[in-house]
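Quick log. Single chain, no ligands specified.
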Amino acid sequence: MIVDVLNIQGEKVSTVELPAAIFEAPTNVSLMHQAYVRQMANARLGTHKTKGRSEVEGGGQKPWRQKGTGRARQGSRRAPQWVGGGKVHTPKPRDYDQRMPKKMRRAALRSALSIKAAGQGIVVLDELTLPEAKTRLMAQALDRLVGDASALILIPSKDALYEPVIRSTNNLPDAKTLLANYLNIRDLLKYDKVVMPLKALDVLVSFLG
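-> predicted structure:
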């Protein structure tokens, strides 16, 4: 697949061939869904906790005698029906992690990238730099490159060259910067366009190709 290489002004400067193994891979919706569910599950902390009747304070003495009061029998103020009593059948700390082989995760990424490429959702730049960290400059650049679409901006490395790009994107609600080797299925599905310089494309080819 041949796509145009643009500059930061949105002007065509050359073309590049996207590797077919990554950007023309077979579409596997079920595999992408499995990868997405795994990522969302692994993001859960699993620290939810409520106290049972053996963990709350109080109790140790019958509230009143068993018979003769006219009231219902009670054994402890820690019972669930009492205010401040223990809870029943409530969440306990647990691990939500799901395992998925690396080959399957990468195949899901290839499938998602192929869908983006088929829908003209891949924008390749010769270089992605800004003279200074200004949200206005990044907003203007994205307006020229992707219009009103949301954008996932892939950068090859987190160094001083790309620091203005990262800082300028932080305040944009429909854009996000991400290291190319941290590409994940959730961000690919969330954003309309994927914007990357040629160096970021090389990073993708190095671990997905």
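Residues 131 and 164 are 8 Å apart (CA to CA).
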